[in-house]
């Protein structure tokens, strides 16, 4: 089979297509013939050798932690009824940028009728995380909500969820194309945070008092600025770090203003909860109540181009690798 291998740490060009042995389903595993592989921004950081305290992978390795496709074989103790079914699955940490991958069978999630495998792959990571942080925010109708990185794979889902819950959503992103997407998803106001003075424009959109809830998918200075304008007694979710780090804030200031902060450690759910939330996300999408935005796709052999586009911030919504 063909697979993408990170030959060493470095720029996107270290991703090379290689011919590798077909995987064999071991006990408790199923082999998925991959139609679609999800591409995450964090995978670009791992490829560069960053965040080594969290990710211990060493080159050469095959990236990719989420796929969708069809089960073609199963190992010992696995129900043979899985064979031939359309599924989405987490790979257990890597191996997804490949034509076939062996995955734990207890993590297989059937793709509902009416939902494509592309959409299933697009929801496998961002769906559970978005649902998890959204549930914890406990949004009430009429509250003001700010979503940063609002045109990213997870951001568009949070805009939809908050809008459906009756919140007044302000979406913050970079550039007209991304802001137009966020508005289409339900944002009542949009702010370009590449322009000076954007925090004040968010305040104005929220009636002058700042957002009651912030879903920060940007991190860095953008996330820090979003924390500063969070309304007293508000809720702040610091789950994104594409700017190079999570939002920095003073815990004493959060306590003084009564702002409840939840960080990335609060969205590291147990595998059983991830599977439950993923299945729910796929069901919501199949019913038309949640829609992932697939902004760009690349063939497997162009995985390096996919990584380069993400690092250049030249993407909207989800980025996927297509194999069939």
Mind explaining what this structure looks like?
This protein is of the alpha/beta class and 324 residues long. It is built from ten helices and 15 strands. Strands 3, 4, 5, 6, 7, 14 and 15 form a seven-stranded mixed sheet that branches. The chain has a six-stranded parallel sheet with strand order 10-9-8-11-12-13, with helices on both faces. Strands 1-2 form a two-stranded antiparallel sheet.
**Tally of separate helices:** 10
Compressed to H and E, one letter per element, the order equals EEEHEEEEHHEHEHEHEHEHEHEHE
* Helix/strand class: alpha/beta
Helix content: 25-40%
Average pLDDT figure? 95
Low-pLDDT parts are none
- What is the straight-line distance between the termini? 13 Å
Number of strands: 15
């Amino acid at each position: 089979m063909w697979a993408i291998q990170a030959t060493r740490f470095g720029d996107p060009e270290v991703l090379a297509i290689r011919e590798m042995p077909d995987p064999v389903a071991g006990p408790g595993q199923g082999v998925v013939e991959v139609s679609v592989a999800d591409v995450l921004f964090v995978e670009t950081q791992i490829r560069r050798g960053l965040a080594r305290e969290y990710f211990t992978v060493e080159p050469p390795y095959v990236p990719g932690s989420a796929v969708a496709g069809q089960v073609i074989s199963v190992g010992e103790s696995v129900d043979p009824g899985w064979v031939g079914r359309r599924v989405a699955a987490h790979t257990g940490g890597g191996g997804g940028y490949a034509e076939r991958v062996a995955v734990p069978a207890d993590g297989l999630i059937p793709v509902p009728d009416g939902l494509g495998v592309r959409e299933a792959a697009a929801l496998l990571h961002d769906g559970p995380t978005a649902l998890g942080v959204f549930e914890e925010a406990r949004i009430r109708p009429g509250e003001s909500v700010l979503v940063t990185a609002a045109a990213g794979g997870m951001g568009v889902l949070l805009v939809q969820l908050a809008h459906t819950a009756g919140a007044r959503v302000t979406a913050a992103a970079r550039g007209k194309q991304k802001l137009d997407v966020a508005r289409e998803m339900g944002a009542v106001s949009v702010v370009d945070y590449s322009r000076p003075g954007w925090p004040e424009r968010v305040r104005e959109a929220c009636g002058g008092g700042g957002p009651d809830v912030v879903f920060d998918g940007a991190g860095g200075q953008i996330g820090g600025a979003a924390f500063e304008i969070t309304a007293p007694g508000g809720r702040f979710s610091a789950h994104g770090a594409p700017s190079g780090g999570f939002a920095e804030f003073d815990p004493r200031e959060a306590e003084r203003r009564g702002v409840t902060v939840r960080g990335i450690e609060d969205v590291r759910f147990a595998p059983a909860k991830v599977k439950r939330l993923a299945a729910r996300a796929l069901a919501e999408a199949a019913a038309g109540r949640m829609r992932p935005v697939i902004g760009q796709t690349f063939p497997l052999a162009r995985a390096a181009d996919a990584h380069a586009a993400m690092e250049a911030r030249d993407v909207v919504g989800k980025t996927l690798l297509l194999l069939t």
